[in-house]
Design a protein that fits this description.
Layout: H1 20-33, E1 41-45, E2 60-63, H2 69-79, E3 84-90, H3 91-97, H4 99-108, E4 112-118, H5 153-160, E5 164-169, H6 173-185, E6 189-195, H7 207-213, E7 214-216, H8 226-233, E8 240-247, H9 278-282
């Protein structure tokens, strides 16, 4: 493995003990294991604590609006289908504001690695409930509990047509790094839902709570069996299976378009330089 520090950028400002520190370390090590350079991928992030990870990785990075990570990925992948797309955000950004984009880009089989930090709370905006918060989760704006069934991102991804669906836990870094590498290698929509404790605003789903429940999927599990994957995803909160639930091969979105065959569109325009678009950005300052 080459030195992961070559991807170091800004020092992250998470709370001490935040699971995102482990996620950042695993991602950088995974990129090194895959022998990727900063020019091999484009990282797109949204709004939230997990999204801040993008600013700590030296790479080509685009910071989108809350919930609008995947539309940006879609546009960039059409312009440069040779680059690997990595989308990083949290359970609020992907599953609440971005829920509609999540469903339809899974259905399209957009070629993207989705790293979804799931701490079951809005950690950036001081502790509101997220779609994955438990029914009776109490917050300052939910003093009597959430009162809604928690969202199951694994089941949604499976039913929406994602071709790679997995769950990791920041408390098991060796497995998490392996899953990140497999998700990046996959051609198609790859969801890696990452159990990542928020030490400041979620005192229920703590590191110990996840540690007691996270269990690797049995090696005999057939990752091509959709029904078996759904059964695993439907298990109660006493056991949270980690690993690859489902993985199949299907043409990625754009493969049917003749305009995208051959060299990426971004390389076809003669004389293109960043200077040509700088005046456009200056108009909106």
């Amino acid at each position: 493995m080459s030195d992961p520090s070559r991807f170091d950028h800004y020092t992250p400002e998470w709370c001490p003990g935040c699971g995102n520190f482990d996620l950042l370390e695993c991602l950088k090590e995974a990129l090194c294991d895959l022998k990727m350079t900063a020019q091999d991928f484009i990282m797109t992030v949204g709004i939230g604590q997990a999204s801040k990870l993008g600013f700590s990785v030296k790479c080509n990075m685009f910071d989108g609006l809350h919930g609008r990570v995947l539309p940006a990925v879609l546009g960039m992948s059409m312009a440069n289908h040779k680059a690997k797309m990595i989308a990083v955000s949290g359970d609020g950004c992907f599953y609440a504001e971005g829920g509609n984009h999540f469903i339809h880009n899974a259905r399209r089989n957009l070629n993207v690695t989705v790293l979804a930090g799931d701490n079951r709370v809005y950690g950036l905006t001081k502790g509101q409930a997220s779609p994955t918060s438990e029914y009776d989760f109490v917050t300052k704006v939910h003093p009597e509990g959430v009162g809604a069934a928690p969202f199951n991102p694994i089941l949604l991804a499976l039913s929406s047509g994602a071709t790679f669906v997995a769950r990791g836990f920041t408390g098991n870094k060796s497995e998490l790094k392996h899953l990140i590498k497999e998700a990046i290698r996959h051609q198609g929509f790859a969801l890696l839902n990452i159990l990542s404790p928020c030490v400041s605003f979620n005192k229920v789903n703590t590191f110990v709570w996840f540690k007691q429940r996270a269990r690797p999927i049995d090696q005999g599990h057939d990752t091509r069996d959709l029904r078996a994957a759904m059964d695993l995803a439907s298990m109660g909160e006493d056991t949270l299976p980690t690993g690859i639930f489902y993985q199949v091969s299907r043409p990625v979105f754009g493969a049917h378009l003749t305009a995208l065959r051959g060299d990426p569109i971004v390389t076809r325009t003669r004389g293109f330089t960043p200077e040509r678009v700088r005046p456009l950005f200056k108009r909106y300052r």
